[in-house]
Amino acid sequence: MNKQLYILMYLFIFVLLQTLVISQIHLFGIVTPFIYIYVLLKMPVDMSRTFIILLSFFLGLIIDIFSNTFGIHAAACSLIGFIRNPLLAQFVDVKELQAGSIPSYKLFGFGHFFYYILILVSIHHIVLFAIDSFGFFQPVQLITRLLSSIILSTVLMTVIETFNYRK
Fold first, then answer.
1. Is 34 exposed, middle or buried (0-12, 13-18, 19+ CB in 10 A)?
2. Averaged pLDDT, 54-82
3. 5-19: per-residue pLDDT in tens?
4. pTM for the complete prediction?
5. Is residue 63 within 8 Å of 19, Cβ to Cβ?
6. Which has the closest alpha carbon to 36: 9, 59, 7, 53?
């Protein structure tokens, strides 16, 4: 599939899912999953870092517009875009991969791909919740929200990847 079409399709589907369905979920008033960053995790490995950072920023900005938040998703996504390529290099030798390779269980193996998801989701959520709380006034609630959202987001992305892996 054409790289640009793949990116646009994933962007459209996950922005719609996040804004119309997932953002309405607040389990126990604490847990909110953010699966839209799956799009950033699944960008081809040979894409330029600049393009990924810009795409990350605009993806976060779109979510901010629909969520009525003031740039917190754009900031968190921009950091993910910045960290993504160096993190990929920790799991696979990017130079040895075919052009257009997409991070997946098949490419990394289950364990490495799970850690890749977990690390990026954790960084995204820490930045997102830290900016959202503007401090640490209620640290227990912040840590509870943070950990539970990281766990749920990671599990949902792992399930999505499992279904993608079967193709």
1. buried
2. 92
3. 777 888 888 888 888
4. 0.87
5. yes
6. 59
Domains of the chain (ranges, CATH numbers)? 3-165 (1.10.1760)
Count Cα atoms within 13 angstroms, Cβ side, for 123: 18
Per DSSP, helices labelled H in 3-138 are: 3-16, 38-41, 49-67, 72-91, 105-108, 110-133
For residue 29, what are the contacts with CB-CB under 8 A and spacing of at least 6? none
- Tell me the C-alpha distance between 58 and 48, whole Å: 16
Yes or no: say if 66 and 19 are a contact pair by the CB < 8 Å rule: yes
What tens digit of pLDDT does each residue of 151-161 get? 999 999 999 88
Mean pLDDT computed over 56-60: 93
Which residues are registered as beta bridge partners of 27? Answer: 31
| Residue among 37, 32, 44 at smallest CA distance from 151 | 32
What pLDDT does residue 53 have? 94
| Cβ contacts of 152 within 8 Å, gap of 6 or more | 27, 31, 33
- The tally of CA atoms less than 13 A away on the side-chain side of residue 49 is 11
Residue 73 and residue 70: Cα distance in Å, rounded? 8
